[in-house]
Amino acid sequence: FGQLSMFCSQAYGAGNLPLVGTWLQIYLVFSTAAAVPLVLLRWLTAPVLRACGVPREVADLAGVYTVWSQAAVLFDLWFASVKEYYAAQNIVRPDAAVDAIFIFVNILVVYVLVFVFGWGIVGAAVATSFTRFARTVTYVLYCCRMGYHRSTWHGWDWSEILVWDRWRRLLVQTLPAALGGLAEELQFEVCTLLAARMGAV
Length: 201
Description:
The protein has about 200 residues and is an all-alpha fold. The chain has one domain. It contains nine helices and no strands. The protein has helices at about 1-15, 15-40, 45-50, 55-70, 70-85, 95-115, 120-145, 160, 165-195. α4 (about 55-70) packs parallel to α7 (about 120-145). The longest helix has about 35 residues, at about 165-195.
């Protein structure tokens, strides 16, 4: 999401305030579309882990968690997009405050769903999705209430969003970063798989 910050910062620094909002809209569309294959792949977590030699019990628990926490992926992407949009305008305190508050909200919701309701791993996953949803909505509503968006966001405008040159610039900047992030993530996943093959603790 550093690319969104770059595009928004360039537009903001050049005094082209409507373009700042346009870049956010483009990124929201882009991140939502990018989440679709990611969410679909997450449904395959358990069989893929079993095929990699992870014990069935561990693979099945991971599969249950990823299926029930699907919504968290999309809310994380939206939250990160809006956060970068505001950060490019030097508005950073709200996301820090909201993040801090929802750490404790998440702990509370996990405790209630896992230990009070007895939902186990499903409760932990649902708590994650709920917390990410509530965090995103709270952040957006607070920033709207404070009017932080007024100078740069003038509503959805598909004629501005669907400009090919902007998408070309976005892809040129984003794809190399995405490939680098993927390579780094694969390193972590290999380590995780090696640890999982040692068996459940």
